[in-house]
Design brief:
This protein is mainly beta. Helix content is 12%, strand content 33%. The chain has one helix and twelve strands. The protein has one helix at 202-230, and strands at residues 53-60, 66-70, 77-83, 95-98, 110-117, 122-127, 130-136, 143-148, 153-160, 166-171, 176-182, 189-195. It has a twelve-stranded antiparallel beta barrel. Strand 2 (66-70) and strand 3 (77-83) form a beta hairpin.
Length: 238
């Protein structure tokens, strides 16, 4: 994959809150996924390209254990992602999200990590040192909820689409915050990550990306196990 990555501008550097979170009313205390009951709940609408921001997610290398997340112009790398298969005695996180190496950023820093727990059906995130626990809503659901420090309310990542390869991040009012559309027939591109409010940046964007990459890889591994014979018995566990 040949991508003309350029140096990031000052407004694209991580850790800055230009307009970190969209306005919302009082934080939700609900612990029930707003998307679980599809028969009665309206799903989040399609991305509004006039107000949303589009990030492009690419696979790097033959092993496909590395990803690059580029900005809307497909040339500016915003994040690099390393995947680790892990093991029973491994202390290395399964997902590590980094700032990319650029002329303005010669020493990339870790943005966040994710570790999968097969017994607890949870995903433990660390975003700039802030621990976040994403917990399965049930053994037969593809929904993980968590209390978001950046957005000040409970949010849910959930699978969507005919193959369950698309993801959506929404709040208790069924307002979508981010949406991942998978590129099912591309070898080098995983898909597009839409951010509902294009002004979201800094720690809030980092939290979306770390959580989204974690849930995306968690579900890819689950589908791989199912296709290999694991079936539905694997449930929401890693």
């Amino acid at each position: 994959m040949n991508m003309d990555y350029k140096d990031m501008g000052s407004d694209e550097k991580h850790g800055l809150y230009h307009h970190p979170i969209p306005p919302h009313t009082s934080p939700s205390t609900s612990h029930i996924s707003p998307l679980m009951n599809r028969a009665h709940n309206r799903l989040p609408p399609a991305p509004d390209h006039n107000t949303s921001r589009t990030l492009h997610v690419y696979l790097d290398g033959l092993t496909q254990r590395h990803m690059t997340i580029a900005d809307a112009d497909k040339t500016h790398p915003l994040y690099t992602v390393d995947q680790n298969s892990g093991g029973i005695f491994s202390s290395t996180p399964h997902i590590t999200v980094n700032q990319p190496h650029t002329a303005n950023n010669p020493t990339p820093a870790v943005v966040g990590t994710a570790t999968f727990h097969n017994m607890k059906r949870s995903i433990e995130l660390d975003v700039h040192g802030q621990p976040i626990s994403m917990d399965s809503e049930g053994i037969y659901t593809r929904s993980y909820g968590f209390m978001s420090p950046a957005f000040g309310q409970r949010l849910w990542w959930e699978c969507e689409g005919i193959w369950g390869a698309d993801l959506v991040l929404a709040n208790a009012r069924k307002e979508w915050i981010a949406k991942f559309d998978s590129s099912l027939f591309s070898w080098s591109k995983l898909g597009k990550l839409y951010i509902a409010n294009g002004a979201i940046s800094g720690v809030a964007l980092d939290e979306i990306v770390v959580g989204g990459c974690a849930f995306l890889q968690h579900e890819r591994r689950r589908r791989s196990r199912s296709s290999a014979g694991g079936g539905a018995a694997s449930g929401g566990a890693y």
